[in-house]
Each structure stands twice: as C-alpha cells, then as structure tokens.
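Long-time lurker. I teach an intro course on protein structure, and each term I like to show students one example going from raw sequence to a predicted 3D structure in token notation. This year I'd like something fresh instead of my usual example. Would anyone be willing to generate the tokens for the chain below so I can use it in lecture? Attribution to the forum is fine with me.
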Amino acid sequence: ALCGAACEYALMQAECGIDAFQVFDSNAFLIPAGAYRELSGRWNARIFAALRGRAKTFLFTPLGADRFPELAASGADAHSVYTGGDLAAIRRANPGNYALQGNLDPLLLSRASPAEVSAKAREIVASQKPFGRHIFNLGHGILPDAKIENVEALCAATGPVSSVLPTRPIRSRPMPVRNTATPDAAFTTNVCIEKI
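-- Reply from a regular --
Happy to contribute to a lecture. Here you go:
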C-alpha cells in the first residue's frame, strides 16, 4: 500500500511538471548486506519504473560504496552518495549509464577553513570529470553552524565548473492537494537543474 501511494504521489508530481524525483531511503543502513533489494530496493524500483520517461529519478541512501551494486539494481537515473563514499571508486567498480550526486562532507563547512573547503570541492569535481554525469552536492544537508565564508568558498570553487543545461519550461498550473487530513501540510520536491 505504501509503495502504491508513493507511486501515485510521484506520478502526480510528474503530471505537474517536475524534472526529477528523489527517494530518500535514509534508514537503509539498517538493512543487512545483500538484503537491500528484498527489503527496500524492489519498492524503490517500482517507483522509478513508474516515472521512467516522465522525470529523472534519484536515490539517496547512507550505504557505503561496497553496497552500490545493490542500489544500482533499483534502476534510478542518479544516485546521491553519502559523505565519505569515493565517487571515482564507485564509477570504476560499477560502470553504467547513471549519474552520481555528491558528496562534500557538510562538517567541512562548519569546521574547516575556506581554503580547505575549496580544495576538497575541486578534488571531488576533478575526480568526476573523466566520467561525466556528476551533480556536485553535499554528502548530506548543510548544518546550521556552517560558516558563511566556507559556503562562499564552496560556491566560488564549484561555480566556474558548473554547467546548467536548459530544462523544460516550468508549468504554471498549481499542484493539486490530495492530503485532506492535514490541509496545511506542505509538500517539497527536489528539482534537478542539471540535465542528466
């Protein structure tokens, strides 16, 4: 039932014109090695299959690079890699037609110097140039104590190498609200500005 509701929600979002849809499988770290497909991956695969051709699909889990083959079986167009995952190692070990998103450690924005943030961001971008199809991002969300000078250094380091490709025009019609139990609840959707 939950997967059916998630598919319905994803298709409603696609009908409203989203470019991308991301599943945050944040508790995947609780799943034993080799059991991801059975316990979670097959349900995510159904959501991604429903969106095929309508929106790009992203999967986020906090699983390590050694578990990437389990994740790739979900069929997502892109995989958000948690902090610490070696993007280049994932690419070398798992060839395929997918994008990677990530994965600067957000703690660097709170604890490091602007020069260290800039150097690490450039290192991540450089590691992905041979592979293409990379979306720079943090390995997880930005922390409240992030230093503004580090955020500025991050933007300065990644801005010159970013390319934003045109996406389809934004539709002007409003998204229908289906959650009648909590009419004041807000829905959020991750929208990808890079074509993958």
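Some talking points for your students: The longest strand covers residues 56-61. The two ends are 31 Å apart (CA to CA).
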